[in-house]
Amino acid sequence: MKNKYLYIQTFGCQMNVHDSEQMVALLSGTGYKLTDNIKLADLIILNTCSIREKAAQKVYSELGRLVKLKEQNPELIIGVGGCLAQHLGTKFHKKALHLDIVFGTHNIHRLPQLLVVIERERKKITEIDFYKSINSIGVFAPPQRGAVSAFVTIMQGCNNFCAYCVVPYLRGPEMSRPADDIIEEVKKLADCGIREVTLLGQNVNSYGKTLSNGLNFTSLIKKIGKISDIERIRFTTSHPRDLSDELINCFAEEAKLCEHIHLPVQSGSNRILALMNRGYTVEEYIKKIDNLRKLSPSISITSDIIVGFPGETKKDYQETIDMMKKIRFDSLFSFKYSERKGTIAQKLEYKVEESEKLRRLEQLQMLQNQHTLEKNTALEGSNQELLVEGKSKNSENDLMGRTSSWRIVNFKGELELIGKLVDVKISKAYLHSLRGKMVNK
Ligand code: 5AD
Ligand code: SF4
After folding, report:
1. CA of 307 to the centre of ligand 1 (A)
2. How would you class 282 by CB atoms within 10 Å of its CB: exposed for 0-12, middle for 13-18, buried for 19 or more?
């Protein structure tokens, strides 16, 4: 089979990153080899995101850059997949005349066949049908050589309809993947050298609800914990409303479950949380954090916050700041509210001015940076176990590993340590990483 080259660019979340890995796996079976040189490509895929307007704009500007390449090479095939493709459908072809394929979030498995049609007939294709289950979910994406950590999709879609969010419209209803398929995939990954898996879903806490065998998320984690070559288990994302005591206990019971939870709170105002349709109060959220910290004292807690949701007053915003001071997150992703077409929040009144959103965001991020640095500095002098992921980005002579709490640590060590668990003593803390020195176990 003649080699053809595939260049793929991923926008957005970990779910999209993993979808791209599955596209690469599917297309390698039809003769496409991955390249990081866009000029070599016979096929370019942009795996798009539309969670915020900024993400969508990035896609448009990248697409604009491809016009020239298509002019130089009319045989070049350009495809867009992911959430923005699902949202725009055929309209995408009108926006970008050089596009060949638009495929939605449930249509990844159709890529090989769609490419055959394009190569034969050179016609424009749009495929955005929803299926009962995503057929590509079980496609095994072999990890890159030397990779230590991998994503595993355990469920698709979302039923929550948070007022600001497009995901339920673009990824369809929630559906759990059978546990046996997940276990089989994790075992295969372990055989390829993977030592850490991150279980992916929009709301992993409700794993199992669409299955008939009574298995829930905690039992799934415990089953994966029994796979001997897997050293660490992570998951993302949890919905605070569905975070059960059983899962909180699991942090204390399951040694392989990392001491980190990403628990998006979105706002510190009960009024705004209700408008957002989140289904919990700040007090309930804080209670869960207290329980997590009681059972697992060194757990790191990260979160997402949106500022400037419609109707967010200065008082509501101040309540978010007060909550942050009370909780002191280890790290935080924060965003300006971005209006999305078709969502519940689009119809709400009292939109917050863009300049005010920016002011709130900058102030909140300054506060979080203080908290992050304080949390990191508290680790100076402590011993931490790292899973060594590879060479450091900062220096050729250093390695990089992550603590159980998801912090990056750079340290001096031999390449053969990659993929192993090592102990380091933390010598210096920075905002985005730590420096450490290896210690003997
Ligand atoms: N505007 C701003 N942020 C959003 N998010 C989701 N939708 C929007 C939106 N319309 C954020 C939420 C979510 C994270 C993945 O993206 O904080 O947790
Ligand atoms: Fe969006 Fe809410 Fe579902 Fe998360 S839980 S994907 S924020 S609708």
Report:
1. 10
2. buried
Dmax (CA) of the chain: 65
102 CA distance to ligand 1 middle (Å): 24
- Mutating to test ligand 1, I would choose from 13, 49, 52, 280 the residue with most ligand atoms within 8 A of its C-beta, which is 52
Residue 131, pLDDT score = 84
Q: Is residue 209 situated within a structural domain?
A: yes
- Which of 171, 238, 239, 333 is the pocket-test mutation for ligand 2 (most atoms within 8 Å of CB)? 239
* Index of the ligand 2 atom closest to the CA of residue 171: 6
Residue 266 Cβ inside 6 Å of ligand 1? The answer reads yes
Based on the fold, state whether residues 95 and 169 are members of the same structural domain. no
Residue 376 CA to residue 248 CA, distance in Å, equals 23
**pLDDT tens sequence across 122-146:** 899 999 998 877 676 778 888 888 8
Cβ count near 62 (within 10 Å): 15
* Statement to judge: residues 15 and 120 lie in one domain: yes
**Same domain, yes or no, for 252 and 300?**
no
pLDDT over 70 at 441, yes or no: no
For residue 365, the enclosing domain spans 267-277+294-378
Ligand 1 pocket, mutate which of 202, 262, 306 (most atoms under 8 A from CB):
306
Q: Are residues 40 and 114 in the same domain?
A: yes
pLDDT tens for each residue of 60-117? 999 999 999 999 999 999 999 999 999 999 999 999 999 999 999 999 999 999 999 9
Ligand 2: residue whose CA is nearest its atom 5:
160
Residue 11 shares a structural domain with residue 120? yes
Specify the CATH number for the domain of residue 21.
Answer: 3.40.50.12160
Strands 32-34 and 421-429: unpaired
